Amino acid sequence: MAEIVLDKVTKTYPDGARAVSDMDIQIADGEFVILVGPSGCGKSTALNMIAGLEDISDGELRIDGVRANEKAPKDRDIAMVFQSYALYPHMSVRENMAFPLRLAKMDDASVRAKVEEAASILDLTQHLDRRPSNLSGGQRQRVAMGRAIVRSPKAFLMDEPLSNLDAKLRGQMRTSVSKLQKQLGTTTVYVTHDQTEAMTLGDRVVVLRGGVVQQIGSPQFLYDQPANLFVAGFIGSPSMNFVPASLEDGALRSPLGTIPLGDRIRRLVEAADAPREVIAGIRPEHFEDAALLEEGHRGQGATFTAPVDVLESMGSEKYAYFTVEAPLASTAELQELAADAGASDVPGSGSTIVTRLSASSAAREGDNVEVWFDTDKLQLFDPSSGRNLTYSG
Amino acid sequence: MVMGTSTAARKARWAILDIIVVVYALVPVLWIASLSFKTKETLADGNFVPREWTLQNYAEIFATSEFIRPLINSIGIASIATLIAVVLGMMAAYAIARLDFPGKRTLIGVSLLIAMFPQISLVTPLFNIEHALGLFDTWPGLILPYITFALPLAIYTLSAFFREIPWELEKAAKMDGATPAQAFRRVIAPLAAPGVFTTAILVFIFAWNDFLFAISLTSTEASRTVPAALAFFTGTSQFEDPTGTISAAAVVITIPIIVFVLFFQRRIVAGLTSGAVKG
Ligand SMILES: Nc1ncnc2c1ncn2[C@@H]1O[C@H](COP(=O)(O)OP(=O)(O)OP(=O)(O)O)[C@@H](O)[C@H]1O
Ligand SMILES: [Mg+2]
């Protein structure tokens, strides 16, 4: 077990590409840290530098307070789980899991005991003598985990370990990874693309963009208090809705109507020295069908009325999509997020607003619906820098 | 029903084609084998199956050092050349498949050039050089040119195999605590084994069958290999027709190749079916 510190770590590839810039992360002993960000933002590069598979161009990596920049991977005592699992195809499951122990020159009896122990934790006992090529995806994934845990390393590094599994299996494995890490208490750095994994697995989440750390914090904190437009748009699924707005006389003039600002937000905005033109963000779950609310509750927010474009009923809730007239907010951050998410799941794409309503809502496609939203949950961003003007971290 | 008859017809067509190909390929070989079992008297009777079977020809060739010594030379020279070419080829191919080093394209280009170079044009200069260096009519005198001409082949085949091995396996081995040498020996080499055996077979056959260098760069039994020695075969007396003994020798020298191929083919197939690369 170990504490891992990245101190202004930078990676410049030989072709000049700057994959990671001045990364500062302190990972405490036993902590589970998630690295997330769009494709190509340097997650794998960062992980490989901790592993020792990539050289560190600048800055310092410390494992347990000792500089590790120059250490070979085998001297760092860190185990890694690869996206492709990287199981040795010519060895049985048993030999795959025993490989690190054999390299460490452990005697046969202890190797056997350790492998069997790991196999029973991962429910692989009956597959020990099979070849990896004959196993299912989930079983292979567990063998890869097994190979990492047998030798009780100082830390685990995992690079999108579940991304080759189908959705259901991914859900199951996610739970077992989480349990396993709690049980072993080993420091873990986990790279993922997946919102759910990022929100549920980690103690802390690191959001990366173009090799630069955007924000580090607990999943809930990043969700409630995103430091900037990028984090706000990246964390959360479906993502936050963004609309351009302008601040006028303590109110917000937006395509959703003129919204009076509450005291809390007004104070934050004043303290942040906000520009006149801003981007307002609001999460889908902060909307509600106005017809379902009591009068008192309604007063705490604002409403707008619009026809429902598409209504998706999930059983436990309903997603209603609306179109607003004004051009939607568009900044470099939002475009990048849109590109990463693909056309389907674009934050504030086109001019669609995504809202999550109670299952009991009577809204129907094509009908005009009065929608209420919680104005205290509004987040305002500076369009030029992306800074969150309502950040109270 | 229609399907049934059409597949039967298809099968018959293929069977006929297969037989033609096999017969075409094997008749000369079988003819030589048949000649080697004929007695001197019935040699020219034109029968495909010998009337009288005899092992006399085999007994004769193994009775003289005229055949045994070249056989030893052939086995020694071809094996050593194969071993060295495959080991060197493995290192070069690994570098080509895995590393980006300056001059990589040049290296590939030059090795291709060597493979295309007409060997006959090199025989005279090689003869002169080997004379000057004292390599003429020695084992190294043949092993060296064999390695040179086998290397491009070895590098090509091997780098294709190395490229198939996922890079991540080596990274995984390093993370598991292996030194680069251990990673190569315990993970990469076993996975490359089918490629290594394939290459070994090709190089061995090349060295074993070579006639041009063998005839030009040797002069005595000290290093003459079987293909060259066959050309010098005479019967027990000057006036005797050596056809029978030549045939017997020809049959004998194909045996090591067949053994070699069969032995390694088992390994190749085993390697491929164990899911060597995919997985
Ligand atoms: N070997 C390399 N040489 C040059 N540039 C590289 C190399 N490997 C990665 N890069 C660049 O570094 C950046 C970060 O790559 P990295 O693989 O770390 O991204 P990632 O966040 O893991 O992406 P993904 O989610 O797609 O796996 C990318 O822009 C990539 O093009
Ligand atoms: Mg990656």
CATH superfamily of the largest domain in chain B: MetI-like
CATH class of the largest domain in chain B: Mainly Alpha
- Which segments of chain B are poorly predicted (pLDDT under 50) over 5 or more consecutive residues? 273-279
The gyration radius over C-alpha positions of chain A equals: 24 Å
Distance between the termini of chain A: 30 Å
Keywords (chain B): Cell membrane, Membrane, Transmembrane, Transmembrane helix, Transport
InterPro entries (chain B): BP-dep_ABC_trans_perm, MetI-like, MetI-like_sf
Membrane topology (chain B): Multi-pass membrane protein
Domain ABC transmembrane type-1 (chain B): 71-264
Summarize the structure.
Chain A has about 400 residues and is an alpha+beta fold. Chain A has helices at about 45-50, 75, 95-105, 110-120, 135-150, 165-185, 195-200, 220-225, 230-235, 265-270, 295-300, 330-340, and strands at about 5-10, 20-25, 30-35, 60-65, 65, 80, 155-160, 185-190, 205-210, 210-215, 240-250, 250-255, 255-260, 275-280, 285-290, 300-315, 315-325, 350-360, 370-375, 380.
Topology:
The complex is a heterodimer of chains A (393) and B (279).
Chain A: E1 4-12, E2 18-27, E3 32-36, H1 43-51, E4 58-63, E5 66-67, H2 73-76, E6 78-81, H3 93-103, H4 108-121, H5 137-149, E7 155-159, H6 167-184, E8 187-192, H7 195-201, E9 204-209, E10 212-217, H8 219-224, H9 229-234, E11 241-248, E12 251-254, E13 257-260, H10 263-271, E14 277-282, E15 287-289, H11 295-298, E16 301-313, E17 317-323, H12 332-341, E18 352-358, E19 368-374, E20 379-381
Parallel strand pairs in A: 3-8, 3-9, 6-7, 7-8
Antiparallel strand pairs in A: 1-2, 1-4, 4-5, 9-10, 11-12, 11-14, 12-13, 14-20, 15-19, 16-17, 16-19, 17-18
Chain B: H1 2-36, H2 56-63, H3 65-98, H4 104-116, H5 120-133, H6 139-164, H7 167-175, H8 180-209, H9 212-216, H10 226-231, H11 243-273
Helix pairs in contact in B: 1-11, 2-11, 3-6, 3-8, 4-6, 6-8, 7-8, 8-11
The structure holds adenosine-5'-triphosphate (ATP) and magnesium ion.
